[in-house]
Amino acid sequence: MEVASQSEPVRAKSGQRRLFGIQLIAAFFLLKTAVFGGALLAAHLDLRIRVAAIELMRELAPLLQLARPQVALAVAPLFLILGVAIVLGVWFLQGWAWVLLFVDRGTSLIDLAQFLGFSALFNGGRLPLLPSSPYFAIDIVSSMFIIVYLLRPEVRRAFGDTTA
After folding, report:
1. Does residue 9 fall inside a structural domain?
2. DSSP-derived secondary structure for the chain
3. Predicted local distance difference test score (pLDDT) of residue 127
């Protein structure tokens, strides 16, 4: 059995080559989805840590911050399904996954704009030096890199875009 090196992309469906960056994106979302799923399971199984688990889920899926805790807990399985869909779609180089990933990462950048706007509004025009949480910072930085990477022609071709 031959092991693929980092310089040689792994083969994907129908002879396509999965670029190393795509493998990293899939691994990032797999880790994020696994942590989110673990927090969701913990929130349902152990009432003592439910609040902390819901807060972790809200950090990993910022749209959940708009809902009350019980609503966030009820809607969280949909976010878990979305995460699994992104992981599988990216890994198997599905065209819809490129779009879904682009929209998902774009919403993270919208969260950044909201954070900076509200911070400036409520801090007398001064921007904060630190984001609200380390998850937020990781999400923003990864979003910028992923969006730039997704726009590269070879990545678009890998996902089936024939115009790239």
Report:
1. no
2. -PPPPSSSPEE-GGGPEEPHHHHHHHHHHHHHHHHHHHHHHHHHH-GGGHHHHHHHHHHHSGGGGGS-HHHHHHHHHHHHHHHHHHHHHHHTT-HHHHHHHHHHHHHHHHHHHHHHHHHHHHTTTPPPSS-S-HHHHHHHHHHHHHHHHHTSHHHHHHTT-TT-
3. 59
Residues 17, 127: Cα–Cα separation, whole Å: 43
**23 within domain boundaries:** yes
Residue 111 lies in a domain: yes
Angle at 97 between CA 96 and CA 100, to 5 degrees: 90
Residues listed for the chain = 164
pLDDT band for 15, please (50, 70, 90 cuts).
low
Q: Take residue 154 and report the two structure tokens written for it.
A: 């070879």
State pTM to two decimals: 0.80
Number of domains in the chain: 1
Residue numbers of the domain that contains 56: 17-158
pLDDT the model gives residue 3: 47
